[in-house]
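ok so i was messing around last nite and threw this chain in just to see what happens. nothing serious, just curious
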Amino acid sequence: MLADRIGEDPRRRTGLPCSVAELEESLDGKEADALHAMLYTLGWSQEKIYAALRDEGHSVGKQTINRHRSRSCRCFQ
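result:
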């Protein structure tokens, strides 16, 4: 039943994290907070996040942004 699954949270895989997760783990303080807000609370588009990260010198896959936000990347199973 779907109602029984609502509390389930995907587990982290033991393999390599995606490029977004790697970046999240490497940032500190305000930078980490800013990325989290861009991904989850401010409603930034995939393209806008990708451009901002690229402009700041970070390398992430464009499609990986939405996969990570929806927990369908290799970080989650």
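not much to say yet. The longest helix spans residues 29-40.
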